[in-house]
Design brief:
By secondary structure, the protein is of the alpha/beta class. The chain has helices at about 20-30, 40, 45-50, 80-95, 115-135, 175-185, 210, 225-235, 250-260, 265-280; strands at about 10, 30-35, 60-65, 65-70, 75, 100-105, 140-145, 165, 195, 240-245. It is globular and about 55 Å long.
C-alpha cells in the first residue's frame, strides 16, 4: 500500500460505487473520496454504506447537498430547512459524519436581483456553517460548476467556506479561472483550500485529447502520456491543491498518480491564460 497522497480525490459522479474501486484506491494511497447526495440517482450515500461501510472510516469523505428529487427531474434549492434535512440524511445514510459537505452549484438557482440572491446565498452558507458547529460534518465548502456569478453575490458578513471546488484543466474558460481567483481572494482562501474537478471536461476518452498535446505544458522529457499531462496541468488552471477525478478503473487511477511526478511549465500556463483572455476580448459583445 502506498503512502496517502492528498492531491487526488476519487470522485464518484459517474461511478458504479463498487467495493473493488475503493480498495484499489486505498492500495494506491488515494484516501480522499468525494460524492454527492444526488449521485447514482440519489442513492450514492446508501450504496457506499452497503458496499463498503467498513472502508469509509479509512477515507476523508466529502459530499454535496443542494439537489433534491423532483416529480420529473432533480431540482435545486438553497432553502436552509431543506439543506439541514439533506445534511442530517447524509449522516444517517452514510453511517458517519462527512468530513466535508459542499453546497452544490449554488449559482444554479441564483437568478434575479442581486440583493435577493445575495441573501439566499448567505442564508445557505449560514446553514452549512451551523451544521458544522452541530457536529454533522467536519467542515463545509462550495462546489461550483460555473462560479462566474458568485463574486458579485458574496456577503462579507456571511460565514466563509473552508474549501472551494471548481472545474479545472485545459478546457476551462477564462471566466471560470477569473471567478475562482476572485472568490479565493474574497474568502481569503489559501491555495490548499481550492480543489479542482472534471480535469478532462467529462471524459479522458473524448476526441479532444487526441487532437491536442498537453505535454507542451510539462517541463522536459517527462515521459508522461497526453492524459497524464492533461491531469497534471489541471492543478494549475486554476491553481488548486487537489483534483477530484472519476473512474471505475484502479489502473487508470494509478496512471494519474504517476502524473504527479511531472513538473508544470509555469510560463506556458501564464501564456495560455493570456491567450484565453485575448480570445475573450476578441469575441463580439
Amino acid at each position: 500500500m502506498r503512502a496517502a497522497d492528498p492531491r487526488i480525490v476519487l470522485g464518484l459522479h459517474r461511478s458504479r460505487h463498487e467495493r473493488r474501486l475503493l480498495t484499489g484506491a486505498l492500495d494506491l494511497g488515494v484516501t480522499a473520496l468525494d460524492t454527492s447526495a444526488n449521485y447514482l440517482g440519489f442513492r450514492s450515500h446508501q450504496a457506499l454504506a452497503q458496499a463498503a461501510g467498513d472502508l469509509l472510516p479509512k477515507f476523508t469523505l466529502s459530499t454535496k447537498v443542494g439537489y433534491f428529487p423532483g416529480p420529473d427531474r432533480a431540482e435545486h434549492s438553497l432553502s436552509p430547512l431543506r439543506l439541514r434535512g439533506a445534511v442530517e440524511q447524509a449522516v444517517r445514510d452514510l453511517g458517519r459524519e462527512p468530513d466535508l459537505v459542499f453546497l452544490h452549484n449554488p449559482e444554479h438557482p441564483l437568478q434575479g436581483t442581486a440583493p435577493r440572491c445575495r441573501d439566499l446565498l448567505a442564508q445557505a452558507c449560514a446553514e452549512l456553517d451551523d451544521a458544522t458547529a452541530r457536529g454533522l460534518c467536519g467542515a463545509w465548502g462550495i462546489a461550483s460548476w460555473d462560479p462566474s456569478p458568485l463574486p458579485n453575490l458574496i456577503d462579507t458578513a456571511a460565514p466563509k467556506p473552508s474549501i472551494l471546488m471548481v472545474r479545472a484543466g485545459l478546457l476551462v474558460g477564462i471566466r471560470t479561472l477569473d471567478a475562482t481567483d476572485a472568490l479565493t481572494k474574497a474568502w481569503s482562501l489559501t491555495e490548499n483550500a481550492v480543489w479542482g474537478m472534471s480535469p478532462f471536461g467529462g471524459s479522458a476518452r473524448t476526441p479532444v485529447w487526441e487532437k491536442i498535446d498537453p505535454r507542451l505544458f510539462i517541463q522536459g522529457d517527462s515521459g508522461l502520456s497526453r492524459i497524464q499531462a492533461a491531469f497534471r496541468t489541471a492543478f494549475h488552471l486554476p491553481r488548486v491543491s487537489a483534483v477530484a477525478v472519476g473512474t471505475d478503473d484502479p489502473t487508470h487511477l494509478g496512471e494519474l498518480i504517476g502524473a504527479l511526478a511531472g513538473q508544470v511549465d509555469e510560463r506556458a500556463i501564464r501564456d495560455y491564460r493570456s491567450l484565453l483572455r485575448g480570445r475573450l476580448r476578441s469575441q463580439p459583445v
